[in-house]
Write a structure and sequence with these properties.
alpha/beta, 2 domains, UDP-n-acetylglucosamine1-carboxyvinyl-transferase, Chain, 23% strand, 441 residues, 12 helices
Length: 441
């Protein structure tokens, strides 16, 4: 895996042009690994993401007795499903800072039964999980907090699950509902299980990913709008045989934005018009800003159509890719407002606060609210040392601040802690250097 120094100095780049093959989607990769593990049969997973978060899930499954093999040096894996019966009933599991691993595993382990502890890095112990734990304990699970109430670390013991109907809040993280949905088939052996969402459900496209993948593994979910979801009795996960992981649509946003800011065309391969990922809707925001975007079956291409227009939009549906818009707003013709992004505050870092801090270093005026960000671009960007808060998306977003001559020649943008990109895109800066034709250091 790529190793970076303590900081990277990125030179100004006048143009962005070229083609990037995307790494696999983190959201699809970790969901697919868990579903393959729980399924009946052997699954061949093609193009799994190579990253810290998928490594966390692979190691956890291994500790739980799930057998898997990597095919040579490729990103293809074979996972031998356990048909809903984990071989190991006692384990200590390290979850790093992988929300896509700890949330679904918590639900699955609570339902399947055993004695498990789950913990992670210090930031993971600050990321809320109380709504999920409460929903599970309400139906007979036994999950205790071993640190601060409402947050990991967790101790899971065998409970007595009675789950015809359950409820979970939807306004903090869609991963709580995803976790309950993925754990529902083992609870629905004898009767239907219905999950009711309390309040507004955020990040709905991520639930669509979950439902799509569950269907690929043989389980259909009936839904009543976005307020209730029912898994009919008697369904169980079955291997689809071979399953391909799409390229990561969130990672695509950085390169598409580069094409929109600095000429283009820039093409990303591995994701296209039929993607199951909601973050492909990022292209709608780029078009609103005046970029020209074209979609194919397995590619998307963006190029500049002149200066970018300021934007005022609701980004609840694409919170991760919306971070890219916040940096692209530096190149807009006026103030841009990103609304309904409250979920940023419970991600790898408090992204509203972090984004406001770092944009101000570059000379932008920023107004940061509880669930919105307003960015007024400067006349010219100031060189700055960008702190990344051990957050992969902060590191990748701010590479865009080197584009289109907004930074004076001879200046640089320093990215502190660039290694954090290993969470989802270990060779990000190498790929970015190719499309901007600039050296890394």
């Amino acid at each position: 895996m790529k190793h970076y120094p303590h900081h990277l100095d990125l030179k100004p780049a006048m143009h962005a042009k070229g083609t990037v093959r995307l790494p696999g989607s983190k959201s699809i990769s970790n969901r697919t690994l868990l579903l393959a593990a729980l399924a009946d049969g052997t699954s061949h997973i093609k193009d799994l993401l190579a990253s810290d978060d998928t490594h966390v899930m692979l190691m956890a499954l291994q500790k739980l007795g799930v057998k898997w093999e990597q095919i040579g040096e490729s990103q293809d894996y074979v996972v031998h499903g356990v048909n809903g019966a984990l071989p190991v009933h006692q384990a200590d599991l390290f979850m790093g800072n992988a929300g896509t691993a700890i949330r679904p595993l918590t639900a699955a382990l609570a339902v399947l039964g055993g004695d498990y502890t789950l913990h992670g890095v210090s930031r993971m112990h600050e990321r809320p999980i109380g709504d999920l734990v409460e929903a599970l304990n309400d139906i007979g699970a036994r999950i205790d907090y071993t640190g601060a109430p409402g947050y990991p670390p967790l101790h899971i013991q065998r409970g007595r699950i009675h789950a015809q109907r359950m409820k979970v809040r939807g306004n903090v993280s869609s991963q709580f509902l995803t976790a309950l949905l993925m754990a529902a088939p083992p609870m629905a052996r004898e009767s239907d299980v219905t999950i009711d969402v309390v309040g507004e459900l955020i990040s709905k496209p991520y639930i669509e990913i979950t439902l799509n993948l569950m269907r690929r593994f043989g389980v259909d979910v009936r839904r009543d709008g976005w307020q209730s979801f029912t898994v009919a009795a008697g369904q169980h996960y079955r291997s689809p045989g071979v399953i391909h992981v799409e390229g990561d649509a969130s990672s695509a946003s950085y390169f598409l934005a580069a094409g929109a800011i600095a000429g283009g065309p820039v093409r990303v391969e591995g994701v296209g018009r039929d993607s199951i990922q909601g973050d492909v809707r990022f292209v709608d925001a780029l078009r609103q800003m005046g970029a020209t975007v074209t979609l194919g079956d397995n590619w998307i291409e963006a190029q500049s159509n002149g200066a970018l227009c300021a934007i005022d939009a609701d980004f609840n549906h694409i919170p991760d890719a919306a971070m890219t818009i916040a940096v692209a707003a530096l190149y807009a013709d006026g103030p841009s407002t990103l609304r309904n992004i409250g979920s940023w505050r419970v991600k790898e870092t408090d992204r509203i606060a972090a984004m406001a801090n770092e944009l101000r270093k570059l000379g932008a005026q920023v107004e940061a609210g509880e669930d919105y960000l307003r960015v007024t671009p400067p006349a010219a960007l100031r060189p700055a040392a960008i702190d990344t808060y051990d957050d992969h998306r902060m590191a990748m977003c701010f590479s865009l601040a080197t584009l289109d001559g907004m930074l004076r020649r001879g200046a640089a943008i320093r990215i502190n802690g660039p290694q954090c990109v290993a969470k989802t895109f270990p060779d990000y800066f190498g790929a970015f250097a190719k499309v901007t034709e600039e050296s890394l250091f």
